[in-house]
Design goal:
By secondary structure, this protein is mainly alpha-helical. It folds into two domains: about 40 residues, no CATH class; about 140 residues, no CATH class. It contains eight helices and three strands. A three-stranded antiparallel β-sheet has the order 1-2-3, covered by helices on one side. Helix 6 packs antiparallel against helix 7. It is extended, with a radius of gyration of 26 Å.
Length: about 200
């Protein structure tokens, strides 16, 4: 069955736009008249659709791995967003503070507040979740965790925490690679940000 007679009937009525209700309740499409090369054609605006290949994890070790990755990302992603917001706030506050001593006092105060608020939650994370969080912090702030510690705490604390991280098989210098090894994480994050996961 051709859609041409239906489109011709809808567009011969003279309105510039026409609403058509789909057979599925609650779904309405707005048909627009568009002139191209002297011809008036119907046009429907549709939502963007992203098509992905079967994730490597599903091919490699089954659905369980992918479900676990989604769970871990959902668990740590809010903390990466909190780090981004806190960093923005701290940088704004630091720009108004003069003198190294006052800046260091302010940073110690903020560090204490953050530890009091989030220490319990972060201590309950698994090593895998910690590795993902380190990557997501780099994604959200454009700085590795090591760079952030070095910038706000100094070289020696950064080296100390890097050593602790290495003991647990993690690297604070890990960078987020959305087109390489972190492509699967990026795919899941885009689904979460779009509200589909």
């Amino acid at each position: 069955m051709s859609l041409l007679p239906l489109c011709a009937a809808l567009y011969s009525q003279g309105d510039t736009t026409r609403t058509r209700t789909d057979s599925v309740p609650g779904r309405v499409y707005l048909l627009n008249k568009v002139e191209r090369n002297g011809e008036i054609l119907p046009e429907v605006e549709i939502r963007e659709v992203t098509v992905y290949a079967t994730p490597k994890s599903e091919r490699r070790s089954g659905r369980r791995y992918n479900e676990r990755l989604i769970y871990n990302i959902k668990r740590v992603y809010p903390y990466a967003l909190i780090v981004r917001e806190k960093l923005t706030q701290v940088n704004y506050e630091l720009s108004a503070i003069e003198g190294d001593r006052a800046r260091k006092e302010y940073l110690r105060k903020v560090e204490k507040e953050v530890f009091e608020e989030y220490e319990d939650d972060l201590s309950k994370m698994t090593i895998t979740q910690g590795k993902i969080l380190i990557k997501l912090i780099d994604r959200e702030t454009q700085n590795t965790s090591f760079e952030l510690i070095r910038e706000y705490r100094g070289k020696f604390p950064a080296a100390f925490w890097q050593g602790v991280a290495r003991i647990f098989g993690t690297n604070l210098k890990a960078e987020y690679d959305p087109l390489g090894e972190d492509a699967e994480i990026e795919r899941i994050l885009s689904e979460i940000e779009a509200g589909r996961l």
